[in-house]
Design a protein that fits this description.
Number of helices: 6
Number of strands: 0
Helix content: 55-70%
Low-confidence stretches: none
Shape: elongated
Mean pLDDT: 85
Order of helices and strands: HHHHHH
Number of domains: 2
Largest sheet: none
Protein name: MULE domain-containing protein
Radius of gyration: 22 Å
Distance between the termini: 37 Å
Amino acid sequence: MKESASDVLDELFVYFEDNFIGRTMARNRRRNPRFSISMWNCFSRVDLDLPRTNNAVDGWHNTFHNVVGNQPSIYKFLKDIIREEHNTTITWNQVLAGTQTKNKRKKYEKIDERIKIM
């Protein structure tokens, strides 16, 4: 079992090297990975106070689905779309005015601060 776990871990390390950090070559240099570090690393996004993920989109979709429900009539759907557009306009105007629209959870603020310190 230990040997098979070791093989699986070796495969995992090779996968990460090939895709994210680049394999080691001669003189301790690395090849370019398949995905550049700037593509997957969230440091620059945190440094610019941007979200690290697109989970907000999933959250919006889930909330909207709960409001609209399954198989709404065309009238209910249009009414909910118009209401959502109105709410989005209000939020956008708050952003433009510089007022705070939503606070991050303390847990995620601390994680962002730790990333910025690195």
